[in-house]
Automatic annotation (TrEMBL):
Record key words, sorted: Amino-acid biosynthesis, Cytoplasm, Diaminopimelate biosynthesis, Lysine biosynthesis, NAD, NADP, Oxidoreductase
Segments forming domain Dihydrodipicolinate reductase C-terminal: 128-264
Reaction equation(s) it catalyzes: (S)-2,3,4,5-tetrahydrodipicolinate + NAD(+) + H2O = (2S,4S)-4-hydroxy-2,3,4,5-tetrahydrodipicolinate + NADH + H(+); (S)-2,3,4,5-tetrahydrodipicolinate + NADP(+) + H2O = (2S,4S)-4-hydroxy-2,3,4,5-tetrahydrodipicolinate + NADPH + H(+)
Keyword Oxidoreductase assigned: yes
Function of the molecule: Catalyzes the conversion of 4-hydroxy-tetrahydrodipicolinate (HTPA) to tetrahydrodipicolinate.
Full protein name: 4-hydroxy-tetrahydrodipicolinate reductase
Active-site annotation: H155 (proton donor/acceptor), K159 (proton donor)
Localization, UniProt: Cytoplasm
Binding site for NADP(+): R35
Pathway(s) where this gene product acts: Amino-acid biosynthesis; L-lysine biosynthesis via DAP pathway; (S)-tetrahydrodipicolinate from L-aspartate: step 4/4
GO (cellular component) term, any one: cytosol
Binding site for NAD(+): G8, A9, T10, G11, R12, M13, G98, T99, T100, A122, A123, N124, Y125
Length: 267
């Protein structure tokens, strides 16, 4: 039985993760952490998600008995990444991380931690989006020399980072396939007198509103025809189940930084 600890248990994803773990017959909820200032601190994790109590009380991450956990899942905000990484490295526990909007320095921390523990890190844990990345790469290999490439993402009003991590992962995958460099070729939104589109650019457009769980479209627009590859997530449970699958996969792996592509055998 896999014993899964969840950081950020009170968040939108945290609650879905608790439910996904409680519904997994091969896993149990080891622990659920929240900010020390959280109004939910001390409450039962099952109660927090509106279900029957599960005998796991929300605690500060520092108070978790990590030695008895198999793996930790972290979908929080970038500012808590360093603490959670240091905790798991000190306790030598594998991690599954889904937090997006990480800075270059935070990505370097991830690389460092992965020298001593196995970590799965992905901007999107749905099967469909990982397949979309592959399909976008295949399309780019055929059409990337002539078509203009634009990535459009839509998310709920509460999302704090832009473009989405998934949009950036799609852009990175296409850049690798076509010999582009996102650092110089990405265009993040347009305004004013922009001039004509430079062909090698990859454009990103961000839409925010309502309760949209997560939509991504990759547009390959040529003269006379265009292809639009679209994925729409309709439930966060899709991401939560993917993260739990990754948790099962990462336990027992050697230290290293892995992706959901590795978990799904798509790498
Ligand atoms: N990879 C994937 O498949 C997916 C990734 N995501 C990403 O997951 C992340 C979380 O998304 P979502 O659940 O919607 O966000 P929420 O804002 O709903 O949840 C964030 C959680 O992190 C906690 N938190 C924030 N700062 C700290 C801190 N300094 N220390 C401890 N805990 C902290 C919050 O606690 P509190 O409630 O007390 O503020 C909350 O529980 C985002 O980066 C999002 O982009 C989302 C969906 C899928
Ligand atoms: O914040 C979200 O909600 C999501 N974030 C991830 C991202 O930034 O790509 C994944 C998903 O689209 C939902």
């Amino acid at each position: 039985m896999l014993k899964i600890g969840i950081f950020g248990a009170t968040g939108r994803m945290g609650k879905n993760l608790i439910e996904a773990v409680l519904n997994d017959s091969r896993a149990s909820l080891h622990s659920a952490s929240a900010r020390p200032s959280s109004a939910f601190m001390g409450m039962d994790a099952g109660t927090v998600i509106g279900q029957a109590p599960c005998a796991v009380a929300l605690t500060a991450y520092q108070d978790i008995d990590a030695a008895s956990a198999s793996v930790f899942i972290d979908f929080t905000l970038p500012e808590s990444l360093a603490d959670h990484l240091a905790f798991c490295v000190a306790q030598q526990r594998p991690m599954v991380i889904g937090t997006t909007g990480l800075s270059t320095a935070q990505l370097a921390l991830l690389d460092d931690a992965a020298k001593t523990i196995p970590i799965v890190f992905a901007a999107n844990y749905s099967v469909g989006v990982n397949l979309l990345i592959k399909l976008a790469q295949q399309t780019a290999a055929v059409m990337g020399d002539s078509a203009d490439i634009e990535i459009i993402e839509t998310h709920h009003r509460y999302k704090v980072d832009a473009p989405s991590g998934t949009a950036l992962a799609l852009g990175e995958g296409i850049a690798q396939t076509t010999g582009r460099n996102l650092a110089t070729d990405a265009v993040y939104g347009r305004e004013g007198y922009t001039g004509e589109r430079a062909h090698q650019t990859i454009g990103f457009a961000t839409v925010r509103g309502g309760d949209v769980v997560g939509d991504h479209t990759v547009l390959f627009a040529d003269i006379g025809e265009r292809i639009e590859l679209t994925h729409k997530a309709s439930s966060r449970m899709t991401f939560a189940k993917g993260a739990v699958t990754a948790a099962h996969w990462v336990v027992g792996k050697p230290p290293g930084l892995y992706s959901m592509m590795d978990v799904l055998g798509l790498a």
